[in-house]
Amino acid sequence: MKVSFIGLGVMGTGMAFNLAKGEKEGEYEYLVCDANPAALEQFNTQGINTTTNILDTADSDYLFLCLPDLEIVKKVIVGENGVLQHMEPGQKIVDFSTISYLGAVEIAETCKENGIEYMDCPISGHPRTTVEGTLTIMCGGDEELFHTIKPMLDRMGEQILYMGDNGAGQLTKMINNCVLNICCASFSELLPVGVKLGLDPEKLGDVLMTATGSSFASKTLIPKVLEGNFEHSFSLERAYKDMESMNEVLMKYQIPLPTLNGTMQTYQLALQNGQGDFYKHAMIRYFENLLGVKVRKKSYQEAEAELVN
């Protein structure tokens, strides 16, 4: 049996290393692929087979993908030089990429027409959890295929959930991301208001990280706001695109979600303010500029004042 993994980015690298354990234990032949030769170097040093040509993976019994967006996923699978036209009926594609619900359903239908089973399995976690193998993986597709691949998924994730038919994994991930985005927008709007009216940024931040208004977003991102740290591998612009994908579903099924629509407007303000390349909590800088305040630790503000002087 041959297993391949395409996409060795921030999230894919750790996952691909964990999946390689199956070859070491004699369960399958294994190959990793990425268009960037530099991404393959650490795999080569570990004696893992590598390639920059996606067509070398087309004979895989199980082909795993972890790619940046829908456009690249389509290019790799159904594009003019994609793997699908070189695959045989009965082979399986397992896609960890975060793409739209409607896009996943479309790819699954195309694969099915060619006798290939496709399962959308988007992930939730951080680069550290990919290395630890403790991701949450949400799966949509054939349930029998899910149970077949679950031992391999268990190498990469801790919470492995079968959510339903094709697209169900992506829909679950989209809902999760939108809830996170809403939480982030709420404290980004309200923290500057408190500081404008005289509240201490650190004490207010402590409340929002521990009291009833707390969330994963506040606990994770408010400390970064207070430190003036807005760098992250996943940009605000990409977070907005997740909501765009959800909005496509809402328009198709005529579902009104005013809270999500309001959050999208908050993100639009931040994007127009030039925050798109930073992480989503950078949207707070729009409201800081609007109110003429900074939501920062006292030590950060003192250091900033020294630089100015």
Automatic annotation (TrEMBL):
One of its GO terms (molecular function) is NAD binding. SUPFAM superfamilies: 6-phosphogluconate dehydrogenase C-terminal domain-like, NAD(P)-binding Rossmann-fold domains. Pfam families: NAD_binding_11, NAD_binding_2. Keywords: NAD, Oxidoreductase. The active site is at residue 173. Residues 2-164 form the 6-phosphogluconate dehydrogenase NADP-binding domain. It comes from the Bacteria. GO terms for biological process: organic acid catabolic process. The keyword ATP-binding does not apply. Residues 167-286 form the 3-hydroxyisobutyrate dehydrogenase-like NAD-binding domain. Belongs to the HIBADH-related family. This is Uncharacterized protein. The lineage of its organism: Bacteria, Bacillati, Bacillota, Bacilli, Bacillales.
